Amino acid sequence: MTSNPFNPSSSDALVELRDVRFGYGERVILDGITLSVPRGKVTALMGASGGGKTTVLRLIGGQYRAQAGEVLFDGHEVGALAASDLYAVRRRMGMLFQFGALFTDLTVFDNVAFPLREHTALSEAMIRDIVLMKLQAVGLRGARDLMPSEVSGGMARRVALARAIALDPELVMYDEPFAGLDPISLGTAARLIRQLNDSLGLTSIIVSHDLDETFHIADKVIVLANGKIAAQGTPDEVRNSRDPLVHQFVTAAPEGPVRFHYPGATIEDDFGAEASA
Questions:
Q1: By Cβ atoms counted within 10 A, which residue in 74, 157, 213, 229 is the most buried?
Q2: What confidence tens digit (pLDDT) does each residue in 127-158 have?
């Protein structure tokens, strides 16, 4: 019997991973990581590409199941939930995909209305009011009748954010919310994430490679590397870490523990002994 996913936990952490392992065949992505995401805060997941950050989001959302360890949302193990309970838990989460992933054949209004029409029995009048309030929150109420092709990349990301908060989730997960944005749009998106987190009482997880903006809005930073947690703490604590790998990451140094070459056969094996002469 699984625990009731509607029963809130008294833990200070909304999300916890305990000794979680996950991989593809022989390729290990997460190697026994333990972390917590505090309620009401903005937590950043950072690290080199391919380090498992998006995998963590998918484990939390139940798209993947941990091969070992536990993934807890509000005290309930996600991997042990029955299908109906997992569906209920997912309604308590919002997800902002990289580049927004808007439905190109729906207007801005209908994109935001989609989860409300799909997951609730609200009247169209109520849906209209909610959609306009969410669009107002991201500064795009006036763009409600536009198509995704008629808005900029930064605006599309804000529409996607309005859609992600349409069902009033407790947790919002952002997968590379700043990718491809110009400096003004990037700063707007970062400020909006922080403002919505605080004004709506959300808990936010951001997967990002943009150090400056992410460190500016995050309460907690977790750096993943080589399947492990390389560092975690406040932005200042992580920025001042003496760990060589973390130092390389936060300073964008080309040389360090993170190697340029992907592991493989030696030069001699591929090209012969004379290649290294």
A1: 157
A2: 999 999 999 999 999 999 999 999 988 889 89
The CA R_g of the chain, rounded to the nearest whole Å, is 21
> How far does the chain reach from its first CA to its final CA, in angstroms?
65
pTM of the complete model: 0.83
Q: Which residues contact 153 (CB under 8 A, 6 or more apart)?
A: 99, 100, 180, 181, 185
> Does 162 map to a domain?
no
205 closest CA partner among 176, 247, 246? 176
Q: Which domain holds residue 54?
A: 12-92+206-254
Token pair, residue 115, equals 């989860």
Which of 93, 88, 98, 92 lies closest to 209 in space, CA to CA?
98
What number of residues does the chain have?
277
Distance CA 237, CA 46 (A): 14
| Alpha helices, H only, the chain | 53-61, 83-90, 108-119, 124-137, 153-164, 183-199, 211-217, 235-239, 244-251, 267-271
Query: Considering the domain boundaries, does residue 189 fall inside one?
Result: no
CATH, residue 242 = 3.40.50.300
